[in-house]
Design a protein that fits this description.
The complex is a heterodimer. Chain A is mainly alpha-helical. Helix content of chain A is about 35%, strand content about 0%. Chain A has a domain at about 25-65: 30s Ribosomal Protein S18 (Irregular), CATH 4.10.640. Chain B has 3 helices and 4 strands, in the order βαββαβα.
Chain lengths: ~80, ~140
């Protein structure tokens, strides 16, 4: 009886929806830096689980923060 | 008139008085153009995420402004001219604020509705979230 092993993958939820964070501000480095891993790229939705509307706001905020040197474009 | 946030970075070696002088100048430009200065916040020295004009850190200043686009353009021109300002960014805030207000109103409405239905003995239904099938 060849039973396939069942993996349970927890469904990722959008941090911004769960914690009711509506205001994704470019000045909030602490929040934004959670979504920029070491290489300073913006974390894709498939990894972070952020929903599409929030990802859009998030990436906009990150790009603004980058242009005022709050966040890096790339690691040095 | 739209709201803007103007953030700029001043050369870290400039003394505090000079930063105040720049702030005074900018405020002058805004009020002269018929705008209103909401808040001037000196955020202090911060490490920059990357080198800007060979500086590793900079003094951040944040202006919250209610002014027309022409005034903002003039402010940006001034900032470009000033040597001690190494970087600036203007962000329009009112449209974002409008969106946030909308969400807030929506949320309050929903909360009120939910409260009422619970009082009537209605079962609270969770968000119908399609359960993802476990893969493999």
């Amino acid at each position: 009886m060849a039973m396939q092993k069942q993996y349970y993958r927890r469904k990722k939820v959008c941090k911004f929806c769960v914690e009711r964070i509506d205001n994704i501000n470019y000045k909030d480095v602490k929040l934004l830096s959670q979504f920029v891993p070491e290489r300073a790229k913006i974390m894709p939705r498939r990894i972070s689980g952020v929903c599409t509307p929030h990802q859009r706001l998030l990436s906009d905020a990150i790009k603004k923060a980058r242009s005022i040197a709050l966040l890096p474009f790339a690691t040095e | 008139m739209p709201n803007y946030e103007i953030m700029f970075i001043v050369n870290p070696t400039t003394p505090d008085e000079d930063i105040d002088k720049i702030n005074g100048q900018i405020e002058g430009v805004i009020t002269a153009g018929g705008g209103k200065v909401g808040k001037v916040e000196k955020m202090g020295k911060r490490r920059l995420a990357y080198l800007v004009k060979k500086f590793r850190e900079g003094a951040y200043v944040l202006f919250t402004v209610e002014a027309s686009g022409a005034v903002v353009r003039e402010v940006e021109r001034r900032l470009r001219v000033l040597d001690s300002v190494i970087k600036y960014l203007t962000v329009r805030m009112d449209e974002d604020a409008k969106r946030l207000d909308k969400i807030k109103v929506h949320r309050e409405k929903r909360a009120a509705r939910r409260g009422r239905s619970r009082a009537e003995g209605g079962e609270r239904r969770g968000p119908s979230q399609a359960e993802q099938m476990p893969e493999e």
